[in-house]
């Protein structure tokens, strides 16, 4: 995972300097609906992830994901809908999204999805994964000079360049977040620190691929898609 740390070094350096502050001021929880409507109940956990579902569910699934990971997009389309209509809706399972940022594009999108109120996270999260093919195609066609703007200089400038060049602003506008508000998200240094620490925590845990899953706090080795996760959930229900 050395490439992760290299690409995100500007964020991680700031995160390390602020670690003591963050340890005191962990993210607050934000219930987004009344208990019982578990598919619409979203909380920001102390670890900084977004947990959907019953916080007291006996089975707690955590996904470490990346917005530039094709297998993460597949899981969002294949596995999450099944969870939503079955175990998650029944309160038997909660599902938490955490981030292992792999590259500057991933970091820019992660900053945007984590900047909105918790109740709006899931829709925006899904929108970017559904558009993954489109924004990655634009990134692959970008000239080298453009890509260099994404990898060098001030982090906020890098994020704005990425958002402009591959139409991330458009996705945000479709979900009620204008360009000026999105730019304020990019300028949120406290959020950048929290997300960088989340990535560092995944790397320190030995997670080296996305998606990867924790079940009740235990890393599930060799589990990187719905086909391998589902039998492990079924065996415990």
Outline the structure in words.
This protein has 237 residues and is an alpha+beta fold. It has a single domain, classed as Glutaredoxin. Helix content is 54%, strand content 11%. It contains 14 helices and six strands. The protein has a six-stranded mixed β-sheet with strand order 1-2-4-3-5-6, sandwiched between helices. α2 crosses α13. It is globular. The two termini are 34 Å apart.
Short account of what is shown:
The chain has 14 helices and six strands.
Q: What's the helix count?
A: 14
Main sheet: which strands, in order across? 1-2-4-3-5-6
Determine the oligomeric state from the structure.
single chain
Number of discrete domains? 1
The radius of gyration over CA amounts to 17 Å
Residue share in β-strands: 5-15%
- Overall geometry: globular
Give the integer mean of the pLDDT values.
Answer: 86
Low-confidence stretches: 1-7, 9-34
Count the E strands: 6
Topology:
Elements lengths: L1 H6 L1 H9 L1 H6 L17 E3 L5 E3 L6 E7 L4 H9 L1 H6 L7 E7 L4 H10 L4 H13 L1 H10 L2 H8 L3 H11 L2 H7 L4 H8 L2 H16 L7 E4 L2 E2 L6 H9 L3
Parallel strand pairs: 3-4
Antiparallel strand pairs: 1-2, 2-4, 3-5, 5-6
Helix pairs in contact: 2-13, 6-10, 9-10
């Amino acid at each position: 995972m050395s490439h992760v740390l290299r690409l995100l070094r500007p964020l991680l350096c700031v995160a390390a300097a602020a670690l003591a502050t963050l340890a005191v001021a962990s993210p607050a929880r934000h219930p987004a609906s009344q208990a019982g409507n578990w598919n619409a109940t979203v909380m920001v956990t102390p670890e900084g992830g977004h947990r959907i579902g019953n916080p007291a569910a006996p089975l707690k699934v955590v996904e470490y994901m990346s917005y530039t990971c094709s297998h993460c997009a597949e899981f969002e389309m294949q596995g999450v809908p099944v969870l939503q209509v079955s175990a998650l809706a029944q309160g038997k399972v909660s599902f938490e999204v955490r981030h292992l940022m792999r590259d500057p594009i991933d970091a820019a999108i992660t900053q945007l999805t984590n900047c909105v109120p918790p109740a709006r996270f899931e829709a925006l999260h899904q929108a970017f994964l559904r558009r993954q093919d489109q924004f990655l195609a634009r990134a692959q066609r970008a000239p080298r000079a453009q890509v260099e703007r994404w990898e060098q200089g001030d982090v906020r400038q890098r994020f704005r360049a990425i958002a402009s060049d591959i139409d991330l602003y458009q996705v945000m506008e479709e979900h009620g977040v204008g360009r000026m508000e999105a730019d304020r998200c990019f300028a949120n240094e406290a959020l950048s620190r929290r997300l960088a620490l989340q990535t560092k925590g995944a790397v320190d845990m030995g997670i080296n691929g996305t998606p990867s899953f924790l079940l009740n706090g235990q890393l599930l080795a060799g589990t990187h898609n719905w086909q391998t996760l589902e039998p492990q959930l079924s065996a415990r229900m």
